[in-house]
Amino acid sequence: MEYPEHLQSAGISKRAHWKAVSLSEGFPFLDEIPHPTPSAVAKLSEENMKRYRSIVFSVSSGSAKIAVDDPLDYDTKDALTHLVDGTITFYTVLPEAIDKALSEQLKERS
What we know:
17% strand, GMP Synthetase, Chain A, domain 3, 47% helix, 6 helices, single chain, alpha+beta
């Protein structure tokens, strides 16, 4: 998802834009990704975390919570529904939050 220059010029923050689009698409918005549990992180391979820019941060009794950085990327959401078992709740975060979480998870895996 792009952060249009005209929004920047109008003084609308990137966070406000991401949150508005996320909520309009029906996805909760998070400022940060909660620290994922080991069982949650294990749900996606390193390759798929990078490819889909997503982090599974919580799993419990047949459901998963996944953070993504683009609420309009339906291909990613579709792919993740085939990779992660159970009911999925998607959350949107800023791309920087995904970058930070990916970096942390990849360090922990190595």
